[in-house]
Amino acid sequence: MALWNRKYKDSVFTDLFGSDRDGKKNFLELYNALSGNDYKLNEVELERKIIEQALYKTFNNDVSWEINGKLIVLVEHQSTVNENMPFRCLEYVTRIYEGIIPVKARYAEKVQKIPNPDFYVVYVGKKPQPAEQELRLSDAFYTKDNCKLELVVKVKNCTDPNLLPIVKKCDILKQYCLFIEIVEQNFNRLLPKKSFKKAIEIAMEQGILTDYLDRKSREVINMLCAKYSYKDDIAVKKQEAFEDGQQANAIKNAKAYYSNGVPIEIIAKSQNITIEQVKEIVKDVVRVSAEA
User: What φ, ψ does residue 13 adopt, rounded to 5°?
Assistant: First the structure.
């Protein structure tokens, strides 16, 4: 049973290897390259799994298929490898299983079979990463013992489409990587739609994803807009979190320094804040000292 909810926009990756007319064929080509298998489209049973996203609130950036009773989850990362991915995949696969096994059936005496899962991250960012690596849920545990719960995510570095054997075995992934590189090279924050349109034109001129982009150029532009809006939103939130952390540290340090007799002028300079701000911050310190 496929779980279907289209409240969120697909990314180009998700559409190309999932939702698109050729998504099933593209997924199988990519999965064969990642896993070393050689499945043929007419020899396997494939069923797409889609859930309402908990991982990406603006757009779907994952692809999930059940193939011959095995559940494959692919996630694309374009910026950096997230070491919390095993936990996020645990959350994700649990929700898929909830859709497979009805609530009443979970309390039956007979075991309810579920597809065996496999998790892959396709990394196409520019930061140096090993060609292959594994992220384990157990790495997040407070103590590493003989844990009874484990989840392994295989990270495949596809940064260089010309050198990596994974991409050489999968032409559609190679073309996708080349397309994303063209998008990044031509991206204009002030004129995003225009830059995406230009990237599509360049890609088609070079024979990259020609059929796909010819059919879905408008949808691709919308998907890229959603993706880059999301990236900007995350960047802003990270900056706000950083600034909030800086502010909290400045307040904490100012109070501690003031309690130890450090002059207000020196506190202001050391914490990169104004004298007036220091006076406001240490009001409580003065009151507590007076009460003491």
Answer: -60, -50
